[in-house]
Amino acid sequence: MPEPLTSVLSRRAEIVAEMRAIVPGEGVVDAVNEMRVFESDALTAYRQLPLVVVLPETVEQVSAVLRFCNDNGVRVVPRGSGTSLSGGSLPLADAVLLVMSRFNRVLEIDYANRAVVAQPGVTNLGITNAIENEGFYYAPDPSSQIACSIGGNVAENSGGVHCLKYGLTANNVLGIEMVLVNGDIVRLGGKHLDSEGYDLLGLMIGSEGLLGVVTEVTVRILKKPETARAVLIGFPTSEQGGQCVADVIAAGIIPGGMEMMDRPAIEAAEDFVRVGYPLDVEALLIIELDGPPAEVNHLIAEVERIAGQNGSTTCRVSMSDAERLSFWAGRKAAFPAVGRISPDYLCMDGTIPRKELPRVLAGMRELSVKHGLRVANVFHAGDGNLHPLILYDANIPGELSAAEEFGADILRLCVRVGGVLTGEHGVGVEKRDLMPEMFSEADLDQQMRIKCAFDPNHLLNPGKVFPQLRRCAELGRMHVHRGQLPFPDIPRF
Amino acid sequence: MPEPLTSVLSRRAEIVAEMRAIVPGEGVVDAVNEMRVFESDALTAYRQLPLVVVLPETVEQVSAVLRFCNDNGVRVVPRGSGTSLSGGSLPLADAVLLVMSRFNRVLEIDYANRAVVAQPGVTNLGITNAIENEGFYYAPDPSSQIACSIGGNVAENSGGVHCLKYGLTANNVLGIEMVLVNGDIVRLGGKHLDSEGYDLLGLMIGSEGLLGVVTEVTVRILKKPETARAVLIGFPTSEQGGQCVADVIAAGIIPGGMEMMDRPAIEAAEDFVRVGYPLDVEALLIIELDGPPAEVNHLIAEVERIAGQNGSTTCRVSMSDAERLSFWAGRKAAFPAVGRISPDYLCMDGTIPRKELPRVLAGMRELSVKHGLRVANVFHAGDGNLHPLILYDANIPGELSAAEEFGADILRLCVRVGGVLTGEHGVGVEKRDLMPEMFSEADLDQQMRIKCAFDPNHLLNPGKVFPQLRRCAELGRMHVHRGQLPFPDIPRF
Question: Which residues cross the membrane (chains A, B) (predicted)?
């Protein structure tokens, strides 16, 4: 986090009064006990009270808040439902927390263009709920879909079980309305296919609240597939499971979902939900095929053949929709299930080229021995997005920092095999200081020049994503020297 | 085009010598008769000789050329195969033309990650050729795919008949290596799913050579579908055909391709290739369904039902692959076929929300009467990308400007119904001055700030895409006033 601007802290009363003038009624929260609910997001190890919480209701209010803050050097942290796993919506002591939860209406349902227009505070599942009676749905499905907002999905480029076949948020958003830090309101994309000019829509998706505030989202909707069947496949080793994933993809099959769990995760899940997972395997794959029945049956036979070639020891195909959902129940409950076998766990998020799965799984076992901590793996195998859960006990001195070191080593391994630091949870504060592992100085400078093009005074969500601030004027000279990190340690509770 | 920099013109000999020092052998072309071949792209109404043509062979050479030009205030126009339809690769009198055609090798074929790594000068079809013996292909298929380069596809975000189902270039490129104007070499994306940091990869795709020079492209490859069958459907009115397109999409069907032709285009094509198109209809749809046979047959029945509801008068389903290809032969020959019935034609490129098709087709007929010129329509109906061909005779005084006015009116109509100025041909010089029809001042300022973040001296492909240059320093103040266009008319031959 950047150091608080003391000049802003001393002007708090004036800023709060200005916010109340812009957002009347109950839209401004400044009492400490009422702000407590906003002090964390889902990266619960970190807490910070904001300067003031503002909950606007109209785009004009968002514009006025940003214009005031930009003109007065006040920092702003945008926030949706606060379900970020990387601390992306963590407040700052000297920043207005701009909470978009009152933007909660579905504005338009347009089946002929297969599009829904929604305000950013609508939940991910809220969009599907609005259209499922007509047989449509919105494809990206983060595990937090009951709670997370579509605006937050845009900020983090969220994924989910079905993103292997249907794409991430970036592939399913057609347009947005956003407010720039100077208060300008711009529209990017729309219901049409593509747009001339630079792809600012793509740039905004996954920009973690550093480039602007989204006030409207147009998403692509899909027809629900006619059939979906799942196959549960067990392997004696994780490497065989990983190879099966690579072979399914290489065969040209794109399952609706392809998830993998390792032995610790299988045992924890089965102990929790009792859905009949095999307990004598080291790796379990759940592969879902969807489409017309004839296609699904054909692909299931192909998947069974490939699994057999990779030494699978069990293979069960769901014979009803209830059975299919039971296969998924264990996977979906895996995080809380792991929570039952360990006092604490750290959920990591890295992505690798799919064919490197066996190598990375083997490397992770070596790291587990090195750091003396167990790791359970539950991940989106099909798209190479790993979620290793590092098990530790915060009450044993040194275990939290060992877990964090272990996590950093895993992410470095991901980068070494040609992967990246995150798949769908964002960088936020959690992986901020690992960015140089992935990006060269030229890369980071170029990203920072983009940041300066949107927010030259670094007022939007500062201290997130980038390991250091660089002055825009310096970047303009195209040659910068890397200095010391200007951020003190983030307070951890 | 910006006015030539006289100081650069006077230093030509020195610049040519510097280029020869960087790119030895035959990689520098400065003789006028040898440069003639580069003076146009596929927007053939415009011609301009460059300062000098440079054909580098290595990324280090590209970096050295750009660094020299950046340090010395020399403009650079990047070029692939020169097939741009919007003048995107049109040379400038005072600019180095950086031709990437010697970057022509496929570097890596990686089936397990479903990826191909290619140099930017490889043709679009060259990628499919390298992998088709294993049953794979690269999906986006511009009509120019025999000639156009994958680097040019990245610059223009090129589309094609199969992009309705499989996406544009932006959806099929996983990573690039590019050289910034200051000579820095950066890598964006890779074989993994997504990347942290800003989506600079998405930003580069469709940036029309204004942000950097691509030196390597990693693309996603797909397994060829098991079956493909096409349906040829005729309608008494264009509106019924347009409604059928909207209804097919609304029913949740995503055909591999869905193309439409109107009566003038049908007649010209049938007269040219004689494939048996019906001549008693006003609109002809070609809809291709692909996938496993059972799925394809099921979807064909659905499409036939929807066509019948919209008053189709003929409906033929291909019974063999030869017949399917004959259905496409007329469509693929439609541009040259129209060239046989009119001395000249202007090919437009606009995109609209799909359900607006009937309204836009009706509007175009009114405009045809207003401007006294015929128009033939051949377009990617499924994704709302129109290619109206305006027929005129350049030898009749006033007809070219009438055709250009007609074209501008069509594009304004596209914007009015919620569409955009281009689908896949880019803005280039052709639609540059229409950008304010689509974008507000705040929009254009923000795009120009991005341009400044990459190329603060406006040396890369100046005069293309944006209707005016704005000084980066002015934009930094976040408030700019719109001045006069600094560009003289582009020379037309």
Answer: none
